[in-house]
Design brief:
Immunoglobulin-like; 6 domains
């Protein structure tokens, strides 16, 4: 076919130096990378019309002739050196392939990453999206200390981290990096792990469907790595999670900005300027004579009292501890300042209200929930050998909702085991939390409705959804829709229960069935239905039938229960037949009333 002919003739002509030079010129590749010579003739067939126009504009070369040297343009050169002062900012330590560790600015690091991950000839908005994704990935690695205990933040191994090719530095990607300098994708106040792949094949995937834990079980869901539709039809190339590079290119050609592209592929993010404020580093700790263990264990104890976080940091004084409140503001306390709690004792006011606080020190970060009128004590110790570590405790975090996903606040959730009974009043968003739980089997129940389920804790956090079923009888449901950004015809929403079949009947009568919970980005019973027809779709689930109006756009569907109106009948007095027929004719002129009335003769 045509593709095979292109490949055949390109392979047979690449031995000609003129073709080689022309290749680099047309695709503006300054690297003279031999692998590029072949790839550019086969990778860009969708852009063949533009390619042929550029080729036709070049001087003709007659077969068998040797053109003057000045007719073969030299490939473009990088605008600046690999470590240019214009690309300043925070530093990153990069482990090179030969084992060397090179410290450079994050922006200079990106100059060798972005053109190695995406063609530099692509649309500027796609290049900007890639620049921010790569910057976010690196910033996340720095903040989370991905290589804890090492003397580097990231590697150049593309099978582990991002591809790094200084020989591919290009003016187009340089411009994209400068245009987005310092911008990072943020979720919950921190840079995201912005994974990406070449082509998702038309729909990206949820992170837990692809990535696994060390034991082979699915990884915990990442809220910003949810599967979404994509305009790139394939073929699939890569894991398909997060940003789809070919999809970004397609969106960019359609007029989407880099911010719109990134927010499509990374659910719930914001794009913000970000500066890293590290806790005390291992090197700083060593200079103070502090032993830095390779691992930690934390015992948590809660008692009634002031809203405080107190504890002992492994009996080590003079270690700065950065505390970040639920509101996002931070302050620092120093271990040893409160010796009543131990040689590494500390105390921090929970001034940010109830919620999750984060404590960062010596390259480690711990999270703990603090509620009003509660003092939380953290006894932090270094793990030595697995046999010396205490049994790992776990937690149960969940949400209480009604059958349509509406949070139920102020309700009492009870946790019961053989020798344990705990209760928690749900917050306004329906959230509840039981932590510091020894391994075992627990019964979780909501006292008002009597619903219950069994939860097994083996360590770590267990996420649970408690759903209070609707009262039987007298139900009447309506759907309200809200238009979302984008031109993809979808109906999305949440029925509050996972694993239930939802059947959608289109205006044409065609039906499709999806399963609730397959799209958790919309809620515990999240769903997504392709709705290309305009008109009324009928959604059937949990014994209910709800009409939804579709308009070819992406719509968020919200279900609401309403009280059905009382039924009544319109009865007239006995009138002459001609008068009744005249009245009936007028009534039937109203479309909604055409078949509602009839004439009954009176004897």
């Amino acid at each position: 076919d045509f593709f095979e002919q292109i490949v055949f003739f390109s392979r047979h002509t690449l031995n000609d130096a003129r073709v080689t030079a022309l290749t680099f010129y047309l695709w503006e590749d300054p690297s003279f990378d031999p692998t590029t010579i072949f790839n550019v003739w086969t990778q860009y067939l969708p852009d063949l019309p533009a390619f042929t126009q550029r080729l036709a504009a070049l001087p003709d070369i007659l077969p068998g002739s040797t053109p003057p040297n000045d007719t073969i343009p030299a490939p473009p050169k990088p605008v600046t050196a690999p470590n240019d002062a214009a690309f300043g900012g925070m530093s990153i330590r990069v482990k090179q392939g030969d084992g060397r560790i090179e410290t450079m600015t994050l922006e200079n690091y990106l100059r060798a990453v972005v053109p190695a991950e995406i063609p530099a000839t692509w649309h500027p908005e796609a290049l900007k999206a890639q620049a921010i994704a790569a910057r976010s990935y690196a910033a996340n690695a720095i903040r989370r200390a991905r290589y804890l205990g090492k003397k580097f933040d990231i590697t150049t191994d593309p099978s582990v981290d991002q591809n790094y090719r200084p020989d591919k530095i290009h003016i187009a990607t340089d411009k994209a990096i400068l245009a987005t300098a310092g911008l990072v994708a943020i979720y919950n106040r921190h840079p995201i792990d912005a994974v990406y792949s070449a082509n998702c094949g038309g729909h990206t995937r949820n992170s837990e469907d692809v990535f696994k834990k060390a034991d082979g079980s699915p990884a915990n869901p990442t809220p910003y790595l949810r599967g979404v539709s994509c305009p790139a039809p394939g073929p699939k190339n890569g894991h398909g999670v997060g940003l789809c590079q070919h999809g970004a290119q397609t969106f960019a050609k359609q007029g989407f900005t880099f911010e719109q592209i990134l927010k499509h592929y990374y659910t719930g993010i914001t794009i913000e300027l970000w500066t890293y404020k590290p806790p005390a580093s291992a090197a700083e700790a060593e200079s103070m004579g502090i032993t830095v263990p390779g691992n930690w264990q934390v015992a948590i104890k809660r008692t009634p009292g002031l809203a405080l976080i107190v504890g002992n940091l492994a009996d080590q004084p003079n270690v700065p501890i950065t505390v970040t409140t639920p509101r996002g503001d931070s302050f620092t306390v120093t271990s040893g300042s409160k010796p009543e709690f131990g040689a590494g004792g500390f105390e921090a006011m929970a001034s940010g209200g109830s919620g999750v606080y984060r404590l960062a020190f010596l390259g480690q970060t711990f999270s703990v929930r603090v509620d009003g009128n509660t003092t939380v004590r953290l006894d932090i110790a270094a793990k030595t050998t697995p046999t010396e570590s205490a049994p790992q405790t776990g937690s149960i975090r969940g949400t209480l909702t009604d059958s349509l996903g509406t949070p139920l606040g102020g309700r009492t959730v009870q946790l019961q085991a053989e020798h344990t009974v705990k209760v928690f009043a749900t917050a306004a968003d329906g959230q509840f939390l039981f932590d510091d739980l020894p391994p075992g089997t627990y019964t979780l129940s909501e006292l008002e409705s009597g619903i219950a389920q069994t939860v097994t804790v083996t360590g770590g956090e267990n996420r649970i959804s408690l759903v209070v079923p609707a009262a039987p009888g007298g139900e009447h449901w309506v759907a309200e829709t809200t238009e979302l950004p984008g031109n993809i015809p979808l109906l999305v929403g949440d029925i509050g229960v996972a694993g239930e079949a939802i059947t959608a009947t289109a205006p044409s009568g065609a039906t499709v069935t999806v399963k609730s919970g397959d799209k958790p980005e919309y809620g515990s019973g999240g769903f997504e239905i392709y709705a290309p027809e305009s008109g009324t779709y009928t959604l059937s689930f949990l014994g209910r039938t709800v009409p939804v109006s579709a308009n070819g756009k992406m719509l968020r569907v919200t279900f609401k229960q309403v009280q059905p109106e009382e039924l009544a009948r319109l009865i007239s007095s006995a009138l002459p037949l001609s008068k009744i027929e005249s009245l009936l004719k007028e009534l039937r002129q109203e479309t909604d009333a055409a078949d509602l009335f009839s004439i009954e003769e009176v004897n």
